[in-house]
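User: Predict the complex with farnesyl diphosphate.
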Amino acid sequence: MSLKHIAIIMDGNGRWAKKRHLPRLLGHRAGVKAVERTVRAAADFGIPYLSLYAFSTENWKRPQTEVKGLMSLFRYYINKKVLELVKEDVRLRFAGRIKELPKDIQEIIHEAENETEKGQRLQLIVCLNYGGRQEIVDAVQKLLKDGYKGEVTEETIRSHLYLPDLPDPDLIIRTSGEYRLSNFWLWEGSYSEFYFSSLLWPDFNKEALQEAILSYEKRDRRYGGIQR
Ligand code: FPP
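Assistant: Here is the predicted structure with farnesyl diphosphate placed in the model:
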């Protein structure tokens, strides 16, 4: 069964740190290592699109120190990894309300997108300040701003989403034993299969990704139709 796009809700960094009596931020730092492992693994498995829920529109409610620490991690990761990603033929893209992020991060994001633009092996989509409801609101606002007067169809909405050319996620993985969508890919995930892993995100690895893929391959996707 074709598997083009895997989306991951990376949950459990805080609990991973707590178990070790470490500050939450060290959990997020370990989470970055898991991101690196997972990107490599997805490329090895020939997955063309991988999207990661890194920061939601609701995450601003966390303590200031945690939000600041996460922003520094994004800065570090995006800045330091770009050359490596270019070498590995990975294209980095972002989805979310990017304009509400600190200015320097916006610049780093645009540079990273430009520098990795030719990457062919894997597209890595980092969802930053992303919310599914907000994405739909933003799409409708774009339509209104463009002065669109025609009939509003699914295709009109779709073509105004953050990344209109991105195929819908075939598989959404959530780690840490939680069973929620948390405002992720609301439009795009309408027919996605779900896989829940009990691992905390910093412990996620190639074997865990392979298990999720194998589970997906056994599913029978009917898209509202009947058995094929
Ligand atoms: C959820 O764990 C994780 C986040 C809100 C942040 C995800 C960020 C990273 C993995 C780091 C960097 C990512 C990139 C793409 C560079 P949680 O804090 O909600 O954990 P808890 O539920 O155990 O408290």
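The chain has a mean pLDDT of 96.
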